[in-house]
Specification:
The complex is a heterodimer.
Chain A (H helix, E strand, L loop, with lengths): L7 E5 L3 E2 L2 E2 L6 H12 L4 E5 L15 H9 L4 E5 L6 H10 L3 E4 L6 H4 L1 H15 L4 E2 L10 H9 L13 H16 L36
Parallel strand pairs in A: 1-4, 4-5, 5-6, 6-7
Antiparallel strand pairs in A: 2-3
Helix pairs in contact in A: 3-5
Chain B lengths: L1 H12 L3 E2 L4 E2 H4 L2 E7 L2 E6 L8 H16 L7 E5 L5 H9 L4 H4 L9 H25 L4 H6 L9 H12 L21 H32 L11
Helix pairs in contact in B: 6-8, 6-9
Classes of the chains: A alpha/beta, B mainly alpha.
Chain lengths: 220, 232
């Protein structure tokens, strides 16, 4: 970490190996790992949530462990890859409670081509619940060249009537790079800005909702 | 007789839902075959991927098994899940009535009641939001919707579906019960109504999106014309 100055790591909680049937960010040694990451200045924890996590009687896609870890380590940023799909509702709900939770759009991005209205719903809900400063473009570069995705997103407008926040050029600039640049301390080329860049996560205070109204069961 | 049983079994399967997608198995294309011989019935289920979550898969097979056995005239009944990485565990677990935990010895630390309740809550919000959306599109205001009782709505399949979700959670389904409630059946205070409806919308968007995704995967896996067809 010191040699390369790494600021982020990618973790796969659905890893199966020998006796291990996946793990959670709240497992004792995972907590130690996160504490060490913080000590080393590795501030961006990318979490790939996935299926088949022990125990099988629980919802294997749930994000409760990310929720807990984000509370325990408020100095770390937790980037949930594929924005928690198929649990978009958990993702958004946790996002309203944890200001250090981010959404990585890998896997969600290509819906812009195959199901543009659904893509609009995903991005619209994320913008509504989490704000424009906590979403990161991702290209799934191992599958294809990102050029087409970037171009499609730049041109994208919601194809349906909706009540979602507007997807302006500034919002797109943030998602496409400015938000990631902030997380990784990257220099942004001159002339590229979203006006209010660098103001940090937008966690607009929203009216409280009774705990029992939550369907995700995130408090353990 | 065989034809009658066949129709009755199909109808029974129509009451069994994917807990996660909140839709009946036949509508999703998950019923791949139905064999009837005399009073013996064998149902084949299939899923969009080899790796679909075993817990939801188990619930679907178990629910289908119960539904088919309850059909009058059915003697022997067998429901099997094909082409899944835990087909063997699930099929033998169901056939021997072992329960989920014993079927997945060492991999589960409880039965699936909690999981089922969690997804029934999501299904409740999904169905509630479909009704609310239709009312809002017809010109009602949010405040008006917030004051409605179940008895104020015209009968419809969508209303019936919502009532069933409420009944499954033990919530009031009477005509005087508020239409918009939280997942414990409590009415929503006016100042929290907007927020509640947006949470319900989010839940519907997620469930519908996942259902669309699963349909696509199933169609690709089995080379089906989309959307998923009903079995003959």
């Amino acid at each position: 970490m010191a040699r390369y100055g790494a600021k982020g790591v990618k973790l796969y909680t659905a890893e199966w190996h020998d006796d291990s049937k996946g793990w959670k960010l709240t497992d004792p040694w995972a907590l130690k790992y996160l504490a060490k990451a913080q000590e080393l200045g590795v501030t961006n924890i990318h979490v790939h949530k996935g299926p088949t996590i022990w125990p099988l009687n629980r919802d294997s896609f749930d994000l409760a462990d990310v929720d807990d870890a984000a509370s325990t380590f408020p100095e770390l940023n937790f980037i949930v890859e594929h924005v928690g799909l198929p649990r978009l509702e958990d993702m958004c709900w946790i996002g309203t409670q944890e200001p250090n939770l981010y959404g990585g759009l890998a896997v969600a991005m290509p819906f812009i081509h195959t199901r543009p209205a659904y893509f609009g719903q995903i991005v619209g809900e994320l913008l509504y619940w989490m704000g424009e400063d906590r979403l990161l473009f991702a290209s799934d570069y191992a599958l294809w060249h990102p050029k087409w995705l970037v171009e499609k997103f730049v041109d994208y407008q919601y194809p349906m009537e909706n009540e979602y926040p507007e997807l302006t050029d500034d919002v797109k600039r943030k998602i496409l790079g400015l938000n990631a640049a902030r997380l990784y301390g990257l220099e942004v080329p001159e002339g590229v800005s979203a006006g209010d860049q660098g103001t940090g996560p937008d966690v607009t205070e929203k009216p409280a909702i009774p705990a029992e109204a939550s369907v995700g069961g995130h408090s353990e | 007789m065989t034809g009658t049983i066949r129709a009755a079994v199909l109808e029974a399967l129509g009451t069994v839902r994917d807990p996660e997608l909140d839709e009946p198995l036949p509508d999703l294309g998950f019923v791949s075959a139905l064999e009837v011989e005399g009073d013996s019935v064998r149902v084949h289920l299939r899923l969009p991927t080899y790796f679909c979550a075993p817990n939801f898969a188990y619930l679907m097979v178990a629910d289908a098994d119960v539904a088919v056995r309850a059909v009058p005239g059915v003697g022997r009944a067998e429901v099997v899940l094909d082409d899944h990485f835990t087909s063997e565990e699930i099929n033998s677990g169901i056939a021997q009535r072992r329960g989920f935990q014993a079927s997945f010895d060492g991999l589960a630390d409880d039965e699936l009641d909690e999981l089922r309740t969690l997804f029934r809550r999501k299904a409740l919000l999904n169905r509630q939001q479909r009704l609310v959306k239709a009312l809002l599109e017809a010109g009602a205001t949010t405040a008006e919707v917030g004051r409605l009782r179940l008895g104020d709505l015209a009968p419809s399949p969508e209303l019936e579906a919502y009532r069933r979700r409420r009944a499954e959670l033990g919530l009031d389904t009477g005509p005087g019960a508020p239409l918009v409630v939280d997942t414990d059946g409590n009415p929503i205070p006016a100042e929290l109504l907007e927020r509640h409806l947006q949470l319900a919308r989010l839940t519907r968007v997620s469930i519908e999106g996942n259902a669309g995704f699963c349909r696509g995967m199933l169609a690709t896996r089995y080379d089906l014309p989309a959307p998923a067809p009903l079995p003959d």
